[in-house]
Amino acid sequence: MGFSVKMNTSRRTPHTNVLVKQQFCCNKFKKPKADDGGAEAPPVLDPIPDPKPIDSDEEMEDEPPIFAEEEAGTSKKKKKRKRKTIKQTQCKAKMLVKLIDGRWQVKHFVRDHNHPLVNKPSLPKYLRSHQGISPDEKEFLRILYNCNLTT
Q1: Does the predicted model carry a pTM greater than 0.70?
Q2: Which of 6, 46, 70, 98 has fewest C-beta within 10 Å?
Q3: How far is CA 100 from the centre of its chain?
Q4: Within 13 A of 130's CA, how many CA atoms are on the CB side?
């Protein structure tokens, strides 16, 4: 059903800056990175600052003690969205097009992929090259925004 495409290289004329050559390739065309076991460095946390020194006991009676859990906020913690990286497989699928006499012509085409393709009609919208908002949807969102309606 499909795969994600990206523009690899292009050539422009030196004087007029017109695009004359463009290569499209599979999104997984790069060499895979050396596997480091997926280990990530733990985040560096700042130490919790000590409360201000209190000069007299009278001030301490007015304010309840503050614990580290309360200061940090024990309410629901927001989970960071984990973005999946695209696994590179050194895929050879590509297409080279050139502008000849005002028309784009396919000069080179490699069809073979070395990874599974998306085979369900409902999934291509999640591919990187298929994402985006159409101009009609953008205009509709602007209208809603101007009417103070949330989306």
Answers
A1: no
A2: 46
A3: 35
A4: 13
